[in-house]
Amino acid sequence: MKEFSLISVSIITILLTIQYINLLIKQQTKPALAMWIMFSVAVGMSMVTYLAEGEFGFLDNIQNTVDLFYVAAITTSILIFGDKKSKISRFDLGCLGAVFLIVVFWIFTQNHLVTNFLIQSILVIAYFPVIQRMIKTRENSESFIIWLGMLIAPALSLISSKGLLATVYSVRAICCIGLLLIFMAWIEISARKQIQLNK
Q1: pLDDT digits (tens, 9 = 90+) for 113-140
Q2: How far apart are the first and last CA of the chain?
Q3: CB atoms closer than 10 angstroms to residue 57
Q4: DSSP letter string, 61-98
Q5: Which of the two ends of the chain, N or C, has the fewest CB atoms closer than 10 A to its terminal CB?
Q6: What are phi and psi of 140, to 5 degrees?
Q7: Beta carbons of 31 and 141 less than 8 angstroms apart
Q8: pTM metric for this prediction
Q9: In whole angstroms, what is the distance from residue 116 CA to residue 182 CA?
């Protein structure tokens, strides 16, 4: 089962990365750049603190490991192919500032456990820019297929996860993505109702 978990999570993440970049190039998705920058820094720090906290390897927290590849590739693609709406706002800068403060905390304290939990809170905050953007534009700019895949991957990763921090990482991802999918559906339903009212 461990091999199944490792392979399936890796394959899902690679396919999601390719699909997301394809949607981005075709301008069929308009991700918030700030969210992905925060993901990149936070996911990287989560991995660093996980490895430093116990005698674990990269495969012991496969979701965090493949997320490093995923978020780095998406962030780079947004910088290259993203539209003007992907620029960073003041709200985004505030969220990025919180990430920076946690990194500074870790540098000075080297408290890996507390830092990792703080990073998980930042990975929750990282969803705020895309949610704020959807509220402001009243349209869903994200792909259901991509986020459904991102929900399945951490669920499968729980099979091979080792240690409290790996489990917390995956459970946090499942909760956040599940709530985002619900919000995306609400935005879609609201938009359709508005169109019907305007007819």
Answers
A1: 999 999 998 888 878 878 888 888 888 8
A2: 53
A3: 9
A4: GHHHHHHHHHHHHHHHHHHHH--GGGS--HHHHHHHHH
A5: C
A6: -85, 115
A7: yes
A8: 0.85
A9: 27
